[in-house]
């Protein structure tokens, strides 16, 4: 299919650049505003426990909505874009099955609000891993935090790479030498400035602003694209606008899937664990995944800790539960309208390096960025790029803040054995935040070398350590206390098991190996549940040999949690 109208000409003018510059100055200014009045770690890491609950709720949603959502979720609904010399361009797959995960995304938040949040307001808690010290001992805290640092680095690093895709798209229209590496460096540096200066207060308030920016941008695209489907771009039947979207993208609008499809028992089991998203994935691993991400991951918990108390923290979590499903539906529908547009206008973007004929790249991840730089009018284009940066930087800044606080509070303090001055610790926190930026940049560069869909890649990497973390926290909630040796063993064995499992699905990752996968790949929502099961198995196997100290308890606040 050739281009009919609206040829893909990449532009980014002065007006667009001014809009993006204004946005970058805005978030940087918020960071310096948040810095005013900071006198202690409590101000830097907890925002003085004075954050409004509605700011925290919107901040939670913004973090979950990274560039991974802004680009990867529309790509999931769009489908896989491929090119063949004989048949030309084609798109396979694409649907709204992501909505099946929303049941767990909401249920998990309710569980967190009811059961987990109260634990964080028993004493002065800075990170979830202080609870591990209460339940198991100081070494469990250090090792648990170190494992989670690995998970955050891998998952957030992929998000940095995703952020760099639209920056690359824009940069190439102005500077021919601009590469994906320049995009990665730019997003890390900008996020570092306001995060390192303003701490969690800057993160929460900028993310609240970013939420409204990217939601406005997404709504604009959702209604703008159908307005283009008129005249020569009408559907074959002559339908225009939304009617054309429905006619052309009808197959993409399928949203409900129970799972267990297949004529034999084996086929049904394989479909449940290895097939597309289904209701069971949402209710079981989806719920557990959210409990992990928002109950025990400093990436998200740090905001809840900044609330005034349990009630406000619960309000923030429940607000995010109300907003999350409509938001994912919004981005999925963007993928549907983009498919309708390119189906009628032609899939050949005509732009390097996004030419679908180039092998080795998950092309559907480029569809939305290409549309931004080729089809959006001036000024609005700048606003939309700012919206994408808003979604992206919200997650990057959260990761930087979380990693800085974990290194300082969970690793440096316990290992040092004594408190440094407040000034020295705050300086260390900012240095560690900067070092975290280097780590995320390195992971992002590595991720740019692969061809896997970015959504799958990010969640697969995060699950390497996530399942073990989930397992030890659940064990602590059930038994209140335990010995740290089984906990550390459970984390290590879970990580090794997940690494080996992923190598059986991707033998080509082993140098010199070219064999096919040993068995069908299990879909990523199940990965944390697998890691959790392995970890709990080790814990219960070793439990009889390592009795717990009776003076410990996950719900026992110490005299001074700040040590």
Beta-strand portion reads under 5%
The rounded Rg comes to 24 Å
The span between the termini is 66 Å
Count every helix, treating DSSP H or I runs of 4 or more residues as helices.
Answer: 19
Largest sheet: 2 strands, antiparallel
Structural class: mainly alpha
The CATH architecture can be named as Up-down Bundle
CATH class: Mainly Alpha
Can you tell me the CATH topology? Sodium/glucose cotransporter
Number of strands: 2
Instruction: Write down the overall geometry.
Output: globular
Low-confidence stretches: 1-6
**Count of domain modules:** 1
- Main sheet: strand order: 1-2
Mean pLDDT, as a whole number?
81
Order of secondary-structure elements: HHHHEEHHHHHHHHHHHHHHH
- CATH H-level superfamily title: Sodium/glucose cotransporter
Describe it.
There is one protein chain. This protein has 563 residues and is mainly α. It has a single domain (14-451), classed as Sodium/glucose cotransporter (Up-down Bundle), CATH 1.20.1730. Helix content is 67%, strand content 2%. It has 19 helices and two strands. Strand 1 and strand 2 form a beta hairpin.
SSE topology:
Blueprint: H1 14-35, H2 41-46, H3 53-64, H4 67-78, E1 80-84, E2 88-92, H5 102-116, H6 129-135, H7 138-174, H8 180-228, H9 241-248, H10 265-274, H11 279-296, H12 298-304, H13 310-345, H14 367-375, H15 380-416, H16 422-447, H17 454-479, H18 484-505, H19 527-542
Antiparallel strand pairs: 1-2
Helix pairs in contact: 1-8, 1-15, 3-8, 3-12, 3-13, 3-15, 4-7, 4-13, 4-15, 5-11, 5-13, 6-7, 7-8, 7-14, 7-15, 7-16, 7-17, 7-18, 8-9, 8-13, 8-15, 8-16, 9-13, 11-12, 11-17, 12-15, 15-16, 17-18, 17-19, 18-19
């Amino acid at each position: 299919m050739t281009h009919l109208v609206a040829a893909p000409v990449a532009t980014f003018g002065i007006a667009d650049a001014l809009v993006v510059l204004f946005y970058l100055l805005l978030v940087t200014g918020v960071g310096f505003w948040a810095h005013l009045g900071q006198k202690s770690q409590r101000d830097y890491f907890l925002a003085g426990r004075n954050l409004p609950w509605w700011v925290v709720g919107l901040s939670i949603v913004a973090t979950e909505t990274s560039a991974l959502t802004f680009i990867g979720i529309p790509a999931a609904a769009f489908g896989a874009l491929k090119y063949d010399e004989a048949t030309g361009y084609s798109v396979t797959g694409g649907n709204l099955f992501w909505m099946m995960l929303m049941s767990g995304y909401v249920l998990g938040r309710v569980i967190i609000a009811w059961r987990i949040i109260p634990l964080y307001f028993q004493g002065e808690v800075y990170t979830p891993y202080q609870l591990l010290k209460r339940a198991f001992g100081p070494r469990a805290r250090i090792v648990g935090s170190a494992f989670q640092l690995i998970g955050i680095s891998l998952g957030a690093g992929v998000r940095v790479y995703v952020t760099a895709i639209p920056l690359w798209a824009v940069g190439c229209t102005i500077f021919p030498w601009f590469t994906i590496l320049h995009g990665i460096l730019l997003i890390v540096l900008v996020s570092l400035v306001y995060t390192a200066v303003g701490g969690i207060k800057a993160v929460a308030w900028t993310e609240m602003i970013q939420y409204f920016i990217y939601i406005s941008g997404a709504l604009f695209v959702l209604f703008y694209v159908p307005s283009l489907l008129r005249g020569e771009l009408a559907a074959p039947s002559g339908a225009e606008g939304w009617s054309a979207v429905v006619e052309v993208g009808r197959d993409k609008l399928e949203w409900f899937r129970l799972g267990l499809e297949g004529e034999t028992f084996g086929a049904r089991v394989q479909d449940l664990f290895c097939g597309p998203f289904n209701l069971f994935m949402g209710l079981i691993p989806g719920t557990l995944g959210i409990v992990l991400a928002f109950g025990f991951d400093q990436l998200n918990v740090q905001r809840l800790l900044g609330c005034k108390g349990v009630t406000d923290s619960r309000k923030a979590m429940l607000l995010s539960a109300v907003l999350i499903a409509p938001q994912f539906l919004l981005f999925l529908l963007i993928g549907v309208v983009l498919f309708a547009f390119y189906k009628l206008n032609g899939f050949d973007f005509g732009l390097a390096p996004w030419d679908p004929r180039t092998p080795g790249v998950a092309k559907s991840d480029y569809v939305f960025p290409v549309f931004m730089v080729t089809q959006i009018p001036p000024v609005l284009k700048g606003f939309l790029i700012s919206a994408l940066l808003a979604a992206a930087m919200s997650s990057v800044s959260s990761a930087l803040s979380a990693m800085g606080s974990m290194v300082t509070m969970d690793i440096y303090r316990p290992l040092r054995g004594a408190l440094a001055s407040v000034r020295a610790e705050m300086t260390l926190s900012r240095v560690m935040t900067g070092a975290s930026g280097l780590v995320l940049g390195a992971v992002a560069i590595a991720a740019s070398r692969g061809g896997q869909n970015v959504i799958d890649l990010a969640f697969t990497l995060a699950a390497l350590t996530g399942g073990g973390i989930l397992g030890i926290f659940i064990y602590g909630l059930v038994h209140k206390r335990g010995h740290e040796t089984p906990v550390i063993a459970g984390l290590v064995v879970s990580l090794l098991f997940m690494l080996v499992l992923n190598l059986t699905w991707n033998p080509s990752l082993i140098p010199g190996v070219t064999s096919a996968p040993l068995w069908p790949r299990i879909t990523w929502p199940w990965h944390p549940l697998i890691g959790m099961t392995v970890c709990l198995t080790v814990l219960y196997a070793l439990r009889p040999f390592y009795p717990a100290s009776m003076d410990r308890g996950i719900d026992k606040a110490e005299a001074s949690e700040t040590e």
